[in-house]
Write a structure and sequence with these properties.
about 260 residues, about 60% helix, globular, 2 domains
């Protein structure tokens, strides 16, 4: 569906996941240049994800949350006692916690920001007004204010799905939704005239996932969250489960604040 409509969401996901993979690959490298080169490249891909759409930042924010947790392992025993342990402490989680925090800060904040800015330069050169930097800031402000100004209600969004309805694919996001009363009305994209039917006619295209994979993954996430909460009581953290949970929540929870329905 994404490719048939030539949507760029697939690039957002690709860049975000590449950033996470490169970070995990980098923390396992032994050489200074191999390690920090991979982590810096991860920052580049996080910036690329944000340049597709701002919600690409959720990959970066989720990763930063993991970094903060891993770095916090230094005080783990002082928080939870001498019996507190961290699963995979000698693997990527432990390595991430022992990396130089200043280097991580540069690679995962400065590098993504610089690359995000560089992505705008071709557009700014073709549509310059007051200079690259002022024009860049103005465009970011326009993006922000546009989304803040989008109105809510059924008149604006005749079909609208709330964030919680996505979990069970109860009401998937609609890419195209139109209601016609007269079956002889001209339908966009050269759609043939439908047969005469009683009542309204609905033409729609939805972003629906594979039901088996979607529902199974939702159940798996719920179980992983419960396991993670139980790990706090057991004073034992599973780094892999925590990574999955934080990444999932980082991409879901920001939509809770969207109130257009």
């Amino acid at each position: 569906m994404e490719s048939r409509y030539a949507l760029n969401n697939v690039y957002l996901i690709l860049f975000g996941l590449l950033g996470q993979v490169l970070l995990l690959w980098g923390v396992r490298r032994e050489g200074f240049y191999a390690r920090w080169g991979a982590i810096a490249l991860a920052g580049v891909f996080f910036g690329a994800a944000a340049s597709v759409k701002w919600n690409g930042l959720w990959y970066l924010f989720g990763t930063l949350a993991i970094v903060v947790m891993a770095q916090g392992m230094v005080g783990w025993r002082s928080w939870f006692g001498n019996n507190a342990t961290v699963s995979n402490s000698e693997g990527w989680w432990g390595r991430l916690g022992r990396l130089n925090p200043l280097g991580l800060l540069v690679c995962l904040t400065v590098v993504p920001g610089v690359f995000y800015f560089l992505e705008w330069i071709p557009h700014l050169l073709l549509n310059h007004k007051n200079g690259i930097w002022p024009d860049f800031l103005e465009l970011q402000w326009q993006i922000l204010t546009y989304h803040q100004g989008v109105k809510a209600g059924k008149d604006v969004h005749p079909y609208c799905s709330t964030w919680w309805s996505w979990l069970g694919m109860v009401r998937p996001v609609a890419y195209f939704y139109r209601i016609d009363v007269n079956p002889q009305e001209i339908i966009p994209l050269n759609h043939p005239n439908p047969p005469a039917l009683a009542g309204s006619l609905v033409y729609d295209v939805h972003a629906m996932g594979n039901p088996l994979l979607w529902w199974s993954s939702t159940v798996a996430i719920v179980l992983a969250l419960l396991y993670d909460l139980g790990a706090i009581g057991r004073r034992r953290l599973d780094g892999l489960v925590r990574w999955i949970n934080v990444g999932y929540l980082a991409n879901l929870l920001p939509w809770v604040g969207v109130t257009r329905c």
